[in-house]
Amino acid sequence: FLSLVHPEDVGQYLIGAQELEQGRDSFPSFRIRRPDGRVRWLQNIGKVIRIGSGPGECLIGVIVDVTETREYESIIEAQREKMEASSKMSALGVMAGGLAHEINNPVAIIHGNAVLLQQMASRGGVDTLRMEQTAKVIANTAERISRITRSLLAFARDAEADPLRRVSLRSLVEDTLDFCRERFRRQGIDLVIDPIDPDLALDCRPVQISQVLLNLLNNAHDAVEGLDDRWASKIGRAHV
């Protein structure tokens, strides 16, 4: 029988067989390759029976073909991944208007200050201090746009396989809020976030945490949108 076991599953099968001998009644499913080349998934369920007081023993049990179950599980997992991706894109779609404003406003600031620099240069006798201040505004504003686009690209991708890493909670919350501040503002909803200790950090997959926070913020927005007193306080707790 071992010769039928899929080469990649032989080690797993042998470990399972040893555990079966030690009293376990089943072990993870494994694959076999049939003589016609087809691959099937099997589940081994059994019990070792020792005969008398001698060394003799036998295995009583059943091997169940679970190929269809595994295929259904694969289909369900694929559908789940599609639904998650669709949910992410839906969240981004909801935030699209706000993101446009979040980017357009700093673009307008950059443009205005760039024009100011041109005017100063054309008049001659440039005020170096004022020029330095104007250039600093442009640089800071461009960095804000860059941060928004980086967060957007990170949010849109699949982070399931990302390693855990230590990140600042305040930075994580601020990056997430960049997606939705404008949406809350346009609806007249006060978004009140308590100060977050800059030293507070956590080990996580930042993209996944940001996705959860954004969903909570979307839910909070929708819950208070029709109320007279519209506000959401703290992350994940809305006045409902």
Structure description:
The chain has 240 residues and is an alpha+beta fold. 55% of the residues lie in helices and 18% in strands. The chain is built from six helices and seven strands, in the order αβββααβααββαβ. The strands form three sheets. A three-stranded antiparallel beta sheet has the order 1-2-3, with helices on both faces. A hairpin with a 6-residue loop joins strand 2 and strand 3. Helix 4 crosses helix 6. It starts with 9 loop residues before the first helix and ends in a 7-residue tail after the last strand.
List its traits:
alpha+beta; three-stranded antiparallel beta sheet; disordered C terminus
Number of helices: 6
Strand content: 15-25%
Taking Cα atoms only, what radius of gyration do you get, to the nearest Å? 30 Å
Largest sheet: 3 strands, antiparallel
- Strand arrangement within the widest β-sheet reads 1-2-3
Shape: elongated
Write the element-wise H/E pattern from the N-terminal end onward.
HEEEHHEHHEEHE
Q: What structural class should be given to the helix and strand makeup?
A: alpha+beta
Quote the distance from N terminus to C terminus.
62 Å
Relative helix content: 55-70%
Number of strands: 7
